[in-house]
Amino acid sequence: KAGVTQTPRYLIKTRGQQVTLSCSPISGHRSVSWYQQTPGQGLQFLFEYFSETQRNKGNFPGRFSGRQFSNSRSEMNVSTLELGDSALYLCASSLGASSAYEQYFGPGTRLTVT
Amino acid sequence: DAKTTQPPSMDCAEGRAANLPCNHSTISGNEYVYWYRQIHSQGPQYIIHGLKNNETNEMASLIITEDRKSSTLILPHATLRDTAVYYCIVRARNAGGTSYGKLTFGQGTILTVHP
User: Fold this and answer.
1) Smallest Cβ distance to A102: which of B46, B106, B107?
2) In this structure, what DSSP letter does residue A11 have?
3) Residue B47: closest C-alpha in chain A
4) What is the DSSP string of B53-73?
5) A97/B46 touch (CB, cutoff 8 Å), yes or no
6) Which residue ranges of chain B lie beneath pLDDT 50?
7) Among residues B29, B21, B11, B3, which one has the least CA distance to residue B113?
8) What is chain A's mean pLDDT, rounded?
9) What is the pLDDT of residue B29?
10) What chain A residue is nearest to B105 in terms of C-alpha separation?
11) What are A35-69's pLDDT values in tens digits?
């Protein structure tokens, strides 16, 4: 079974631009979560989607948004990019949204904002 | 979610068992203990999780104390490829509430396996 895939793997953007990252979960998984990883803050939870509904949101500004499609694929968008948004963005999928289900992570998208 | 405490770093000789401790003294009865690891610049990898009983899979064993206030992840025969940051995470079990589903990562333990 294929794992979680994320596209693109690397991205360079300029301050003020916006970016959209994509995540395809493991087949049959209905929950997708997004995380941001930076050297200073570590791994931080962004949001979680299940059945096209956002179920949980971390402490990030409104510039960070996401959505989930009917096939469980998910996208996250960051508008008006700032230098501090440079990070590894990780997507994780699980069978369901309960904490009983383990989350499987993709390889991440490395975003650099210049 | 309950807070966890892990040593910042540990060393292990290749071929020996690696025992990674985690303290979660404020854990409640409805919270799972999860272990993940992250090899440099890759996505975290799920290892194992448990609620009360000890668990074993092809990667590792998880030993949870009877009072559930601490646990130990055991890699039975460590290899150089097990060098990674290991995260112990406590997740609320019940649906609902702001912690529903999410993983809260701490600083983890950097495990270095030596030849």
Assistant:
1) B46
2) E
3) A102
4) S-EE-SS-EEEE-TTSSEEEE
5) no
6) 98
7) B11
8) 94
9) 82
10) A43
11) 999 999 999 999 999 999 998 899 999 999 999 99
